[in-house]
Write a structure and sequence with these properties.
The chain has about 325 residues and is an alpha/beta fold. It contains 9 helices and 17 strands. The chain is about 40% helix and about 25% strand. α1 crosses α2, α1 packs across α3 and α1 packs across α4. The chain is rod-shaped.
């Protein structure tokens, strides 16, 4: 018999509020009957005879019937005891299989991982990191979704979320991965029509394409002399999708603040131009977010791989330092 009774009884409550034996008491009863005596069951389970006897007595009291009889040959189940065993043994075996499956999930690197990441990291870091992880772990599958919207880790069933900006949620864990440069960009058509801003303050009079999470906030810009400017901006488009903001900038709808990696190709092709290119913007900090509690081995391995490869991305210049900026 594989079912172990070596654990504290899990008790439910009678309607009158009294404690009643749970599954562990039934497991003790099954272990006693299978062993044929309290002594043999106590040795097998690593418990005292008194503990086993109390558990069986409590179960009999709860059910209102005798489950075992003492005979010269040992403990023998009564008719009620045999009926309980017939129903309980398959359930106990299934419970043990479920426990073993959960144990394996916490120690074996196998299974599927659902990952969400911002699109600006697709080619410069997260995409290559996932590919190298899969080469190293043949027994793991990854479902990778790129998008700028803020996903709900628990409700949507993601194991790992990479995102820019902190998450103020005590139910999740966060680890710093690195920062990415942000730049101001616009199309030549927009700059010809509206005129390029000559100072950070001039951004306030331009059509600025803003990220939804930044709505109502100011853009922090440091000029060439090192002076910090906080400019409240507005515009005709607010989106939670950085790709949409990039495409809107290419279409001539205004000035966008984007991660440098996301608009690098558009800048190289001349579809976008830098705005206030002698100024600098605060770099965006990226984190890996996971559910609280103990993670399955495959998720722990993937998170460690992300942290390790973020160092490679920093060496290549795609990500900056992991050091978090001071909060204001």
């Amino acid at each position: 018999m594989t079912q172990s009774a070596n654990s504290s009884a899990s008790n439910a409550k009678h309607p009158d509020g009294e404690s009643r034996p749970g599954l562990d008491a039934i497991a003790v009863f099954a272990a006693v009957v299978t062993a044929g005596s309290l002594s043999a069951a106590a040795r097998a389970q690593g418990l005292s005879k008194a503990t086993l006897s109390r558990a069986v007595t409590a179960l009999e009291r709860d059910l209102g019937t005798t489950l075992v009889e003492r005979r010269a040959s040992g403990l023998v189940p009564t008719t009620a005891g045999r009926a309980l065993l017939e129903r309980a043994l398959p359930a106990l075996a299934e419970l043990e299989r479920a426990r073993e499956q959960v144990r394996r999930a916490s120690t074996v690197t196998a299974g599927r991982i659902r990952v969400s990441s911002p699109p600006e990291l697709a080619s410069v870091w997260v995409g290559p990191a996932v590919q190298s992880f899969l080469r190293e772990h043949n027994d793991v599958d990854v479902e990778l979704q790129f998008g700028a919207r803020l996903v709900d880790l628990a409700r949507e069933g993601f194991d790992v979320v990479v995102r820019g900006g902190r998450v103020d949620d005590p139910a999740v864990r966060m680890r710093v991965l690195g920062r990415m440069r942000a730049v101001l960009v616009a199309s030549r058509a927009y700059l010809t029509r509206a005129g390029p801003p000559q100072s950070p303050e001039a951004l306030a009079s331009h059509s600025c394409l803003t990220l939804a999470v930044d709505q109502g906030r100011a853009w922090d810009v440091v000029d060439a002399a090192g002076r910090a400017h906080r400019v409240v901006v507005s515009g005709r488009l607010v989106s939670n999708d950085l790709l949409s903001l990039r495409d809107a900038a290419i279409a001539g709808l205004g000035i966008a603040r984007l991660p440098e990696a996301l608009c690098a190709e558009a800048l190289a092709r001349g579809e976008l131009e830098r705005v206030l290119d002698r100024c600098t913007l605060a770099a965006r900090m990226y984190y890996v977010v996971t559910p609280g509690g103990r993670l399955p081995a495959r998720v722990r391995a993937f998170v460690e791989h992300l942290v390790r490869t973020s160092g490679d991305a920093r060496s290549a210049g795609s990500l900056l330092s992991k050091r978090e900026p001071r909060r204001r």
